[in-house]
Amino acid sequence: MMGLQEFLADNYRTELAAFRAVLAGIPEDVFGVDRLGHSPAWHALHIADWLRLTVLGDPTANYHYLGWEDKAWAQAMKTDAAPVQEDASKADILARLDGIGEQAVAYLQNASDADMEGMTFSPSAPNGERPRLAAVGLHLRHVAYHRGQVVLGQKA
């Protein structure tokens, strides 16, 4: 039977590949155009930021695409420049998503049971934290949600 870490890594690999395929199909000239509130570029950077925060636990204060930018906690997390801006080239944005996605899958594949225990930051939880494993599962669904948003945006 597949272990938890292998299961998580496999599911993240699959969902990120599906998300990446949808993004790859967006023409370069509309990749940065807002549809239904955000551009495909923003969705890609949003997922990269949340992968860093939720899966990798990266403490670097350069999160600019969390989607809660009007909240004080999000403003405190973007004091450094964003690694890639929404107006960057499609290739640069997809490279950022790919790199962070590969790091997240590798982390999950090699995580210990202890790495999946405890609590982690989660702004949508009533107390601002949720169990780490639940947060990792929630973020997997979050990737799928944004894949759907990009698809719907292209129909708008």
CATH architecture identity: Up-down Bundle
Mean pLDDT: 94
Structural class computed from helices and strand pairing = mainly alpha
**How many strands?**
2
What does the model show?
With 156 residues, the protein is mainly α. The chain has one domain: Four Helix Bundle (Hemerythrin (Met), subunit A) (Up-down Bundle). The chain has 5 helices and 2 strands. It has helices at 4-24, 40-56, 72-76, 90-110, 132-155; strands spanning 119-121, 129-131. Strands 1-2 form a two-stranded antiparallel sheet. β1 (119-121) and β2 (129-131) form a beta hairpin. α2 runs antiparallel to α5. It is globular, with a radius of gyration of 15 Å. The N and C termini lie far apart (43 Å). The mean pLDDT is 94.
List keywords for this structure.
156 residues; mainly alpha; Four Helix Bundle (Hemerythrin (Met), subunit A); two-stranded antiparallel sheet; 5 helices; 56% helix; 4% strand; globular
